[in-house]
């Protein structure tokens, strides 16, 4: 099975204090620590496990800049066979639909049976997988927490539905799945693993390699435009409730009631 | 020429989801400010009766798509039908609840119709007759304002953020023709536990437990949640330990919740957990470490052993009833 996994390089929210750029419409990205989007590690792990069982190749792809190569190498150290970097000045300012358009062009260049994305990335939209599937007219399942492969015509996937219930669906291949965290345990990548893949060739493709008209992706095509960013006030911290347990609870209930928090 | 505001309303077990009514209320306000009408869309097996209720939230027209294959969570079928409805009615904007279904449907529709979409909006307003949205990025560390451009603009709204307000709409019900199109996702098995469990993202009250629970016995939290009429959530540590299902996880890699009251019990308050609950109206933290990070984001803090405090709160709240 030929599997393409879409991965994104994202600022590490735990490591970074965010500041804004001078225009106030993006992060000041100069000194940020980056990592692979957490969900994408689960998608790559799932792909590797499928290929371990039924054979084939795992290719990881990202839309980004030169530095995004590092996330491809990390996923290759996990066990992905190939990496592809999609990078072009024309891609800058792409919205989710722009990213999906670029990924679609790569899918059509290849011969993939299965395309995996993470359920969500740093911008929290959780939409690129669904958009990609709709553009390709491929079957799609979101928030997948179980994958069963038998045969190469179809795939069975589990997902959580409303109220914590679970359902299984069958999708014809090729298809797109967005993978939920917790589906597996992504393997650990050590320095040695990264070193082993340090020399592997990673092709870089731009708009013309993908046959994309620059006007259909990037800033010009984006239908969602950033206006401004701000850092929300995290609040003044808590009011500490003191006294005996009884007193504390009496105070608590009174306060919650006065804030309308208790019916 | 695109006109009016459309809201896609979701039924679950025969009643409308709270977030759908929130979306209608917001949609009504937007429609009023444009001086245009509010159209609701309801898809499912037999929905024309319950759909009538939406007049109460200001729907002027209620488009009903009925087919057994539209019932429940059927994004593929619903996508095909919804695209037809949008093409037919040409609304200026379409709102969805940011539920699993709403997020998936809106993303698919956005790609199919090549229109802009903002997901998980915390605020929506109109400038130059176009939608402007506020949404969070990077696990809540940033709030962004985005313009949605083009003749049709899509947005999903985060549950429990907008008020539900009743209004009077003409409520004309119009049944539309259903063409399911190509269906390429087949349901083969459904494990539905008929439970009275309240969906975490819809709950008004959430009691969450972390690593301090020290095992799968969450009964003291279940009792408090049941007394409040709410749901139980968990930190990732509690989920990773196997004490709670992944579907209960609150945070960056779990669910984003915004209840009236969030009680964090034995949760340290890591950024990734905060990302999932910081927009709750009132946050109470119970932690035996006075320096716990969670106290920075909470409104009220109790420095004590949760195993003593939680049952005592439950008893007091029972007395209120
Ligand atoms: C400098 C800059 C300018 C930008 N300008 C705009 C703008 O003007 N308007 C706007 O709407 N957005 C803009 N963006 C945001 C950007 O387009 C987002 O990456 C996109 O919207 C998808 O992000 P998400 O986190 O919401 O993805 P989600 O939909 O949450 O991601 C789900 C999955 O999709 C896949 N995926 C997502 N992104 C990529 C990627 N880059 N490469 C490979 N796979 C991917 C991954 O598998 C991921 O797990 C900008 C970003 C940057 C860095
Ligand atoms: C990419 C990424 C994504 C993540 N996503 C999420 C996510 O979605 N959700 C999430 O929750 N985490 C997430 N995490 C993990 C997060 O960083 C923390 O590790 C996790 O939230 C900690 O869980 P905890 O608070 O239960 O455990 P701990 O940090 O171990 O905290 C336990 C707390 O309980 C207190 N305590 C102990 N005994 C008692 C007692 N008897 N009474 C009262 N208090 C007591 C302790 O003082 C301590 O503060 C993510 C991490 C990463 C790297």
TrEMBL record, chain A:
Q: What are this entry's molecular-function GO terms?
A: electron transfer activity
Where in the numbering of this chain does the Electron transfer flavoprotein alpha/beta-subunit N-terminal domain appear?
Answer: 24-214
The UniProt entry, under SMART domains, shows: ETF
Under InterPro entries, the record lists: ETF_a/b_N, ETF_b, ETF_beta_N, Rossmann-like_a/b/a_fold
What Pfam family is a match for this entry? ETF
Which SUPFAM superfamilies does the record cross-reference, listed alphabetically? Adenine nucleotide alpha hydrolases-like
Could you list this entry's UniProt keywords, alphabetically sorted.
Answer: Electron transport, Transport
Family statement: Belongs to the ETF beta-subunit/FixA family.
UniProt-recorded name of the protein? Electron transfer flavoprotein subunit beta
Source organism of this protein record: Desulfocicer vacuolatum DSM 3385
UniProtKB/TrEMBL annotation, chain B:
Which Gene Ontology MF annotations are present? electron transfer activity; flavin adenine dinucleotide binding
Binding positions for FAD?
211, 235-236, 249-253, 266-273, 287
Q: What is this protein called?
A: Electron transfer flavoprotein subunit alpha
Signal peptide boundaries: none
Its source organism is Desulfocicer vacuolatum DSM 3385
- Pfam families given in the database record: ETF (PF01012), ETF_alpha (PF00766)
Needed cofactors, names only, are: FAD
The organism sits in which domain of life? Bacteria
Instruction: Keyword check for Electron transport, yes or no.
Output: yes
Give any single GO term for biological process.
fatty acid beta-oxidation using acyl-CoA dehydrogenase
């Amino acid at each position: 099975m030929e599997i393409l996994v879409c991965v994104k390089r994202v600022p590490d929210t735990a490591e970074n204090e965010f500041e804004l750029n001078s225009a106030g419409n993006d992060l000041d990205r100069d000194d940020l620590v980056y990592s692979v989007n957490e969900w994408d590690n689960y998608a790559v792990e799932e792909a590797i496990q499928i290929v371990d069982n039924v054979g084939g190749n795992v290719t990881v792809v990202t839309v980004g800049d030169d530095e995004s190569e590092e996330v491809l190498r990390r996923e290759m150290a996990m066990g992905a066979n190939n990496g592809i970097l999609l990078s072009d000045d024309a891609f800058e300012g792409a919205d989710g639909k722009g990213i999906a358009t670029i990924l679609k062009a790569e899918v059509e260049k290849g011969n993939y049976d299965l395309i995996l994305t993470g359920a969500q990335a740093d911008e929290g939209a959780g939409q690129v997988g669904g958009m990609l599937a709709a553009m390709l007219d491929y079957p799609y399942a979101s928030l997948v927490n179980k994958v069963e492969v038998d045969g190469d015509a179809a795939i069975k996937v589990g997902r959580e539905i409303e109220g914590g219930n679970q359902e299984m669906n069958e999708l014809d291949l090729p298809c797109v799945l967005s993978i939920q965290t917790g589906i597996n345990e992504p393997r650990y990548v050590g320095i040695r693993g990264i070193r082993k893949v340090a020399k592997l060739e990673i092709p870089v493709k731009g708009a013309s390699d993908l046959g994309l008209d620059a006007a259909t992706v990037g800033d010009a095509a984006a239908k969602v435009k950033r206006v401004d960013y701000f850092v929300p006030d995290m609040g003044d911290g808590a009011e500490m409730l003191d006294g005996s347990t009884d007193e504390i609870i009496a105070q608590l209930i009174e306060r919650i009631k006065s804030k309308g928090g208790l019916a | 020429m695109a006109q009016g505001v459309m809201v896609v309303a979701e039924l679950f077990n025969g009643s409308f989801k709270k977030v759908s009514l929130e979306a209608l209320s917001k949609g009504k306000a937007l429609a009023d400010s444009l001086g245009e009408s509010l159209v609701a869309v309801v898809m499912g097996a037999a929905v024309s009766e319950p759909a009538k209720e939406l007049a109460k939230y200001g729907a002027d027209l209620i488009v009903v798509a009925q087919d057994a294959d539209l019932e429940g969570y059927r994004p593929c079928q619903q996508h095909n039908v919804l695209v037809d409805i949008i093409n037919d009615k040409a609304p200026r904007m379409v709102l969805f609840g940011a539920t699993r279904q709403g997020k998936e449907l809106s993303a698919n529709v956005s790609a199919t119709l090549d229109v802009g979409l903002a997901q998980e909006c915390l605020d929506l307003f109109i400038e130059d007759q176009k939608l402007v949205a506020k949404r969070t990025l990077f696990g809540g560390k940033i709030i962004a304002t985005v313009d949605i451009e083009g003749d049709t603009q899509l947005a999903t709204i985060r549950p429990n953020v907008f008020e539900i307000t009743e209004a009077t709409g003409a409520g004309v019900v119009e049944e539309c023709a259903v063409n399911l199109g190509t269906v390429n996702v087949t349901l083969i098995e459904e494990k539905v536990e008929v439970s009275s469990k309240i969906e975490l993202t819809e709950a008004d009250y959430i009691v969450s437990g972390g690593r301090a629970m020290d095992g799968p016995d969450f009964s003291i939290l279940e009792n408090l949640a049941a007394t409040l009429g709410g749901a139980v959530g968990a930190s990732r540590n509690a989920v990773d330990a196997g004490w709670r299902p992944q579907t209960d996880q609150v945070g960056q890699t779990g669910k984003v919740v915004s209840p009236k009251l969030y009680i964090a019990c034995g949760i340290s308050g890591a950024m990734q957990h905060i990302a999932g609950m910081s927009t709750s109206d009132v946050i109470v933290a119970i932690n035996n470490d006075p320096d716990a990070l969670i106290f920075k984001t909470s409104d009220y803090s109790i420095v004590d052993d949760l195993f003593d405090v939680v049952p005592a709160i439950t008893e007091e709240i029972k007395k209120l009833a």
